[in-house]
Specification:
The protein contains 8 helices and 17 strands. The chain is an alpha+beta fold and 470 residues long. The strands form 3 sheets. An 8-stranded antiparallel sheet has the order 4-15-14-13-8-17-6-5, with no helix packed on it. Strands 7-16-9-10-11-12 form a 6-stranded antiparallel sheet, with no helix packed on it. The longest helix has 118 residues. The relative contact order is 0.07.
Length: 470
């Protein structure tokens, strides 16, 4: 046997033994299993290690945390360990036989003295072997534990710093919220003050216009009173003349007729009174919070009405369409209802009326009469009607029907409903002003939007009513 063989055999045997040794018991594998991280251990050693260290489960060699106690039996490694154990035993036994035959140690020994001492030490009792290698493993474990402790202390320090910061943020959050509340209260106080001033200006303006209107009414009242007296006096004179008419009084008759002609040319006139638009600051921004997507209900539309595909506009078509005369459909009135039914809440929508000379929008009970064209009973309909005759433009509300003269036509109408408070109001969207607000009512039935483009007027008023996208 060569010198190289003699020196390399123990190294090979030791390397083989290390590869086939359990990291925990430091002995050849017995029923080995392999964990998910790729390291192998004796089955009983691994289970005992996990039992001692409780959770979380980790690999005893690399300390990697394991998601679950999963491992696989490694039968091939077990067979290799068994072969390694037998091979080692045979090598040691052969060495002993050669020594007992009297061969010279230098020529016949397979291992050197140092190597043999290691082997002999390895073949001592399992308890001594384990004690030696357990000491080495213990040092390794202690080093790993120290590393873990360092990481844990670092993490604890970081967590404590964040905890202290979060505690400071709790107080800071309270202070910030308190400050924000104060700012909100302050800003709304300013807004309330501003709105209060706007309210006072509007009231003062209305009072001023009221005085001007009353003055004009009183002056016209005096003028008409004088005119009535003159007419009464003239009537008395004419009646007296008729009763006492003679040929000599023809000249008197002619004079009376001349005086009558002057009186008859004086036409009594009503006084035109006007009030400024009741502009409400921030009205539209406030109402838009309650915007409702309103569409038209084709089943209720009069057969002469043409609805758009998106059910957002309606116009008078001029030709009766072949539609079923169902109970919901208006048969005489050029009217259509909105598809939405309201039984609660607050709702707002806007309608473009454009330059139409007649139109009607509003809210009605769902049970409103659809057949015939009779006036709706009070409380069934709350609508706004726009009417232009020549250069005169007026708005009417129903019911009961009453109107008011306006300086300029309305092009876009806002409709607001607060079901619970029984409030319905109409707004001029362009001027952001209130047109009319109905007295508070108590609703007990479902309500629906109502629209009427009205009939054409000698080729005019053909534009549609359009429900706007808010």
């Amino acid at each position: 046997m060569s010198i190289q063989e003699k020196t390399s055999t123990p190294d090979l045997m030791e390397s083989l033994r290390e590869e086939l040794t359990c990291f925990i018991c430091l002995d050849y594998f017995n029923s080995p299993v392999t964990t998910e991280c790729g390291h192998s251990f004796c089955l009983m050693c691994l289970l005992k290690s996990w039992e001692e260290h409780n959770t979380p489960l980790s690999c005893p060699e690399c300390w990697r945390t394991l998601g679950a106690p999963h491992f696989q039996a490694n039968e091939r490694l077990g067979r290799l360990a068994s072969i390694g154990r037998q091979l080692r035993s045979q090598v040691l036994q052969g060495e002993d036989e050669q020594s007992s035959c009297g061969r010279t140690p230098g020529a016949s020994r397979v291992f050197s003295d140092d190597e043999q001492s290691v082997i002999n030490f390895s073949t001592q009792s399992h308890g001594i072997n384990r004690a030696y290698f357990s000491s080495e493993a213990e040092e390794q474990h202690k080093e790993k534990l120290q590393d873990v402790l360092s990481l844990l202390r670092k993490k604890k320090k970081e967590a404590q710093a964040i905890l202290n910061h979060e505690k400071e943020r709790v107080m800071l959050c309270k202070e910030e919220t308190k400050t924000c509340k104060q700012v909100v209260v302050s800003e709304y106080m300013k807004m309330h003050q501003f709105l209060k001033e706007e309210e006072q200006l509007q009231l003062q303006l209305l009072e001023k216009e009221e005085k001007a209107n009353l003055k004009k009414l009183r002056e016209n009242e005096i003028h008409l009173t004088k005119q009535v007296r003159r007419l009464s006096k003239m009537i008395g004179q004419i009646e007296f003349t008729c009763q006492n008419l003679t040929l000599e009084s023809f000249e008197e008759v002619r004079g009376a007729m001349d005086r009558c002609e002057l009186l008859l040319l004086q036409c009594p006139e009503t006084t035109i009174t006007e009030l400024s638009l009741c502009r409400i600051t921030g009205m539209r921004d406030m109402l838009r919070k309650f915007s409702t997507d309103v569409t038209l209900d084709p089943a209720t539309a009069n057969a002469y009405l043409v609805l758009s595909d998106d059910l957002k506009s309606v116009r008078y078509g001029g030709t009766r369409q072949q539609l079923p005369d169902n109970p919901e459909r208006f048969d005489q009135s050029a009217t259509v209802l909105g598809a939405q039914i309201f039984t609660c809440g607050r709702h707002y929508w806007e309608v473009e009326v454009g330059n139409k000379t007649e139109w009607e929008v509003g809210i009605c009970k769902d049970s409103v009469i659809r057949k015939g064209n009779l006036p709706k009973p009070p409380g069934d309909l709350f609508s706004l009607i726009g009417l232009k005759i020549g250069d005169d433009y007026s708005l009417w509300v129903s019911s009961p029907l009453k109107g008011q003269h306006v300086r300029e036509p309305v092009h876009k109408v806002g409709v607001f409903l607060d079901y619970e408070s029984g409030h319905i109001a109409f707004y001029n969207v362009t001027d952001e002003s209130l047109i009319y607000s109905f007295p508070s009512n108590s609703f007990h039935e479902a309500l629906r939007p109502i629209f009427s483009p009205c009939l054409p007027n000698e080729g005019t008023n053909t534009d549609p009513l359009i429900i706007c996208h808010i």
